[in-house]
Amino acid sequence: MLGASHPTRDFSFVTDTVAGFISAMNSSQAIGEVINLGSNFEISIEDTSKLISELMDKDVEFLVEAQRVRPSEARLSDFGPQCQGQEAARLVSEYEGHAGFRRGLTQTIEWFGQPRNLGAYKAELYNV
User: Fold this and answer.
1) Which of 4, 17, 120, 121 has the fewest CB atoms within 10 Å distance of its CB?
2) 39 CB burial (10 A radius; 0-12, 13-18, 19+)
3) Burial level of 38, CB count in 10 A (0-12/13-18/19+)?
4) For residues 25 and 90, which has the higher predicted lDDT (pLDDT)?
5) Can you give the pTM of this predicted structure?
6) Burial degree of 35 (CB within 10 A; 0-12, 13-18, 19+)
7) CA dihedral of residues 110, 116, 120, 125 (deg, nearest 10)
8) Based on the number of CB atoms within 10 Å of its own CB, is 9 exposed (0-12), middle (13-18) or buried (19 or more)?
9) Any bridge partners for residue 42, and if so which?
C-alpha cells in the first residue's frame, strides 16, 4: 500500500551516506559548511515500487491508502535536483554516491531475503 505515488525522491544508499559523512569529517574544507549528501538521481515512488517488483521478479499490485496521502495544501520543502547534492558535497569532500540506486535496492532485497534479518523487521508497524 502506498500513499501518493507521483512524488519523487533522491535516495542514497546507506554506505554512500556514511562514506560522505566520513569524507566530510576528514575534510578541512567542510568546516562550517552545509553539505547535502544526495545522489542527484530522482525517481518517483511509483517507479521505485515498479523497480523493486522487477528486481524481485514478482508481480505486485500497488494500492493507494488514503490515510497516507498528504492533503493537497500540505507543502514540503523542495530538496529536488536544484540542490545538486553530490556537486555540493564534492566542493568540500571526496564524497561520491557510487552504490547506485539499482545496486542499493538489490543489496536491500538480499538483506531482507535472509531469515535472520527479516525476523527483526516489524512489518506490522509503519516503517520509515
Assistant:
1) 120
2) buried
3) buried
4) 25
5) 0.68
6) buried
7) 50
8) middle
9) 10
* Pairwise CA distance, residues 22 & 16, whole Å: 10
Q: What share of the chain is helix, strand, coil (3-state, %, to 5)?
A: 45, 5, 50
Instruction: Tell me which residue has cell 574544507.
Output: 29
Q: Cα–Cα distance between 96 and 19 in angstroms, integer?
A: 8
Which residue is listed with cell 543489496? 107
* 41 contact partners, CB below 8 Å, separation of at least 6: 10, 11, 101
CA 121 – CA 40 distance, rounded (Å): 29
Chain center to CA of 111: 16
